[in-house]
């Protein structure tokens, strides 16, 4: 079957720039079938769903600085395979509320709040990049709710960052919070820089150099708001990579051996700016017994965007 995302792209922008109608015509993209809001301790989380509401649910977590709309090609493929795909904009991202503080623990609580709205029983957790790390931690936090774990290029490398002692970790928490609050104070009243659809696509392309310009233009129309002075990404301008708080790759890797359900790990083997730079031999020793690992040659960090059909088929087969 031909991958919809590999079909002919829309027309190139005209003299006036790409219009929303042209950008939205990305092949294979489908907006969610349903949208709702979940309250997580006072923070409203925008939840998107694809597929039959009565189908078995599957949780899908996006990466840092992404949003549920980045699944607009990938999620429909899983839905068409018989799943009720449930994704949410993480706090500060997309249409979810912005928060005073961001942390790894807050993201875990938010994920648990979304899962708490789904029917009782076990369900698959799937996550990309930061979302892959998130669902890996969640697998140990909610063992009674998970049936299988799929980590899409969210397997960190420990090469670039050494571990730290508990004493150092405690000291770093205070420093990180102080720095975070100073960063926030410096951005009071600030907004993200506006631009045209093409300008925002060009800026995002610097972090996602392997993504087609047509896909990036599509993302602007679902991940940004349009105002009189142009489009702005719907991401809290005070957000930084990792939010605040110390974090080391080992802390996530050490979550893997204890996962007691079937595990599928997928790694794009082409290095790029937003990826972890992880090599298979750094991950394999941490996988639990019986886990499956797929390294994808010629594919970058965004495995589900570059090869949505291939990755959706891998997951569908694995979950069967």
Descriptive overview:
The chain has 320 residues and is an alpha/beta fold. It has helices at residues 20-23, 74-80, 104-115, 130-141, 166-185, 197-207, 213-223, 249-253, 280-283, 303-306, 308-319; strands at residues 34-40, 43-50, 57-61, 84-88, 123-128, 146-152, 224-227, 230-233, 263-268, 292-296. The strands form 2 sheets. Strands 1-2-4-3-5-6-9-10 form an 8-stranded mixed sheet, with helices on both faces. A two-stranded antiparallel sheet has the order 7-8. Helix 2 links the parallel strand 3 (57-61) and strand 4.
Give the tags.
320 residues, two-stranded antiparallel ribbon, 11 helices, 10 strands, 32% helix, globular
Q: How would you sum up the major sheet?
A: 8 strands, mixed
Dominant shape: globular
Low-confidence stretches: 1-11
Into which percent range does the helicity of residues fall? Answer: 25-40%
**Radius of gyration, CA atoms, in whole angstroms:** 19 Å
What distance separates the N and C termini?
A: 20 Å
Kindly estimate the percentage of residues that lie in beta strands according to DSSP: 15-25%
Query: How many runs of DSSP E, i.e. beta strands?
Result: 10
SSE order in H/E notation? HEEEHEHEHEHHHEEHEHEHH
